[in-house]
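Suppose you are handed a protein chain with no further information: no name, no annotation, nothing but its sequence. What can you learn? This example shows the usual starting point.
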Amino acid sequence: MSMRPIPTRLTVPLLPALAAVAMLAVTLSALPGPAEAQGRGKPIVIWNNKGGNVIEAIQYRNELARSGRRVEVRGYCRSACTIYITLPNACLGPGATVGFHAPRIPGTTIIPPIVDELMAQYYRGGILRMWNTQWKHSLKMHKISARQYVKLDPQTRLCRN
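A reasonable first move is to predict its three-dimensional structure. Written in structure tokens, the prediction is:
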């Protein structure tokens, strides 16, 4: 049995297909799921989240939005975690640290196409400006405090204590 090599480099014609798949995943994940009691129950606390796969983070963000429960982002929130901060039912812990960097394929320095645009749709104001002009191009982690985040995006609510 002959084994064919697996392509290791994406080609330009594949990019539109990847974009379509990513957007389909985001759209499907936004469809309503089982109804949960709106606003009831303990808050969902996201604590020291290092991020991860952006598509999975978008799906989880949609679940958090549908839950109706308060979402508290606390500790160190970096990378894909940052998209949870702008949920309408979220607040940012006053002692939190938020970290931004260019999305990349795990274990590499390859910045994949489209992912930065997917993340950008969840940022506002000065955070969006910083993302588009600096952070999405940098492999270095750019850390800001919760208070600095709120200065850049005044719509963000700080959690109580």
